[in-house]
Amino acid sequence: MSINTTDLTQATLEGNGIFDVLMKANKAHLESEFQKGRIKGPEYSTVYLGSLTQVMQTALQFLLSKEKTGLENLVLEKQIALADAQTREVEARILQIQKQTELVEQQRLNAVTENTVLVAQECKLRAEYDLTMGTVLKAAQETALLSQKTATERAQITALGVDEDSVVGRQKGLYVAQTAGFTRDAEQKAAKLLVDSWNVRRTTDEGTVADGTNMLNDATIGRAVTKLLAGVNA
Question: What is the mean predicted confidence (pLDDT) over 92-101?
Answer without folding.
Answer: 94
